[in-house]
Design a protein that fits this description.
Blueprint (H helix, E strand, L loop, with lengths): L2 H7 L5 H24 L9 H12 L22 H6 L21 H21 L6 E5 L3 H15 L5 E5 L4 H9 L3 E5 L2 E3 L2 E3 L2 H11 L4 E7 L11 H11 L3 E4 L7 H13 L4 E5 H5 L6 E5 L2 H10 L7 H42 L13 E5 L1 H6 L3 H11 L6 E3 L4 E4 L2 E4 L12 E5 L6 H19 L3 H21 L4
Parallel strand pairs: 2-3, 2-6, 6-7, 7-8
Antiparallel strand pairs: 1-9, 4-5, 8-9, 10-14, 11-14, 12-13
């Protein structure tokens, strides 16, 4: 409704009522105008009605929603299901053009505006979260692994002779495969054990640079957020090393936006040395569906190069999801979630430490990891080889998700490279352990229920003669499931 329509409405309904409605409408419009003017996450969250008004206004700017549109092309934003159209708020054209994911589409002004606004709001949030000097970013409709691959492929054009990527080890398949998929040879740098923590071996990194030659190295691929007892890489020292040898530096910041410590490391690394880009997941940091990531950096031209490397148009769903989420929360709401996560990290650590002591175990001392915790399982390992893995199975069947149980001596081959002690980030970590994390969105109830169920599982396993019975019962259930799969009911 524009002013002319409101004036006409006064002839039908009492003018005082219409003016009251007009004032309410202007309240919504003022919020939208501030967003368009400033390009920042609003301090206070919006109501659903304001968000839907904004999205509907964007949708009518796309050609597929023009009342008199007559499309004769191969991509005209046609959707067979009205349910699908409503799910996407009729923003069907996606984002970008064939040559650049950040480009404006002539026949999709609304979707293009959505893309630009989302990138601007996300940039503001990254700054608020701790990386104050970040200058550019964009949302890409791929998860973290493929987004890292896109960064490596972009660097290929800058360093065509390079073959290697130096990678301080973290046992997570997607970040390893991101390098393989890009066509490079990962050079795994084993971590060093300092106390209970696994930390970056800076001496080994520099030695490998000198051995291979800086010109043959595409980049150093470092990590912030990770599972304890591994801790974030020594980003400042690696950034200084990259500047010294003129080697690019890509940071896997998968779920690091929620941690002020991880974001501070990136900010400091960029200040004292070199960080070319850092990549973070949307679902892990902003509680949206899986399928998107943010690629950010400190050089506008390099970030633009990465966006141009993306082939073809892209789905607008991740951009739409994260924009709706941030407009709903507002900056204050998101900061509140970050603060609650940090408080619950301390609570989880206290509860896990008390539980460990009751069972003759200990909470591993990993002060440099701000998200993940680890509890030793030495006693369980000594009672039975299968007991550690059985604990993981028991927790899963009791609906404790996200806990990771790491036994000794696991071996895994990923894309031709064999990792010894797989999942522990080390060839020979001295003890088996259990991981738990305080990630954004966790509640006090999550902590207390998981501790209670873990306690019951440990008591059941440590009860004399119980381990063998539980393992036999579990094996029998697995065999039964295998038979059911082999001979399904007709």
């Amino acid at each position: 409704m524009n002013n002319e329509n409101f004036t006409l409405s006064e002839k039908i309904v009492s003018p005082s009522y219409v003016r009251q409605g007009l004032q309410a409408r202007r309240g919504h419009e003022q919020r939208i105008r501030a967003l368009l003017e400033q390009g920042k996450c609003p301090e206070e969250g919006w109501s659903e009605s304001t968000i839907e008004l904004f999205l509907n206004e964007l949708a009518v700017l796309d050609s597929n929603n023009f009342l008199g549109n007559c499309g004769v092309g191969e991509r005209e934003g046609r959707v067979a299901s009205s349910l699908v159209a409503r799910r996407h708020y009729r923003l069907i054209h996606g984002i970008g053009r064939s040559g650049d994911i950040a480009a404006v589409q002539p026949k999709a002004a609304g979707s293009s505006l959505l893309n630009k606004i989302t990138n601007s709001v996300v940039l503001d949030v990254l700054k608020c979260a701790g990386v104050r000097s970040v200058s550019s970013c964009f949302v890409v409709p791929m998860a973290t692994g493929m987004s890292l691959t896109l960064c490596f492929l972009t660097l290929r054009h800058r360093r065509p002779a390079a073959r290697y990527i130096l990678w301080p080890r973290i046992d997570q398949k997607s970040c390893f495969k991101s390098m393989i998929t890009a066509g490079f040879e990962p050079v795994v740098i084993e971590n060093v054990i300092e106390g209970d923590e696994l930390r970056t071996d800076l001496e080994a990194v520099e030695k490998k640079i000198e051995e291979l030659g800086a010109e043959n190295i595409l980049c150093i691929h470092s990590t912030t957020s990770c599972f304890a007892p591994r801790v974030p890489d020594r980003l400042e020292e690696l950034a200084v090393m990259c500047a010294k040898y003129n080697i690019p530096h890509i940071v896997n910041n998968a779920y690091g936006v929620q941690s002020s410590k991880c974001m501070h490391l990136i900010q400091q690394g960029a200040r004292v040395g070199r960080i070319d880009a850092f990549v973070q997941s949307l679902d892990k940091n902003f509680m949206v569906p899986v399928g998107g990531a943010i690629i950010a950096g400190f050089d506008d031209e390099f970030i633009k190069e990465i966006s141009k490397m993306y082939p073809g148009r892209a789905s607008a769903s991740p951009s739409l999801d994260v924009l709706i989420t941030l407009l709903t929360l507002g900056a204050s709401g998101y900061k509140k979630l970050l603060s609650e996560r940090k408080e619950l990290y301390t609570h989880l650590a206290q509860e896990l430490k008390a539980l460990a002591e009751r069972h003759g175990e200990r909470l591993l001392h990993t002060p440099h990891n701000p998200i993940s915790l680890a509890m030793s399982l030495d006693g369980l390992q000594s009672s039975c080889d299968k007991a550690v893995t059985q604990l993981g199975s028991m927790l899963f069947t009791r609906q404790v998700s996200g806990a990771r149980v790491i036994p000794l001596g696991m071996k895994q081959t990923v894309s031709g490279h064999t990792f010894h002690g797989f999942m522990s980030h080390s060839d020979a970590y001295p003890c088996p352990y259990l991981n738990a994390a305080s990630a954004i969105g966790i509640t006090k109830n999550d902590v207390e229920l998981s501790i209670k169920r873990l306690d019951k599982c440990l008591k059941a396993l440590k009860k004399e003669g119980n381990i063998e019975k539980i393992i036999l019962r579990s094996d029998a259930m697995l065999n039964s499931s295998s038979l059911m799969a082999t001979f399904p009911s007709q």
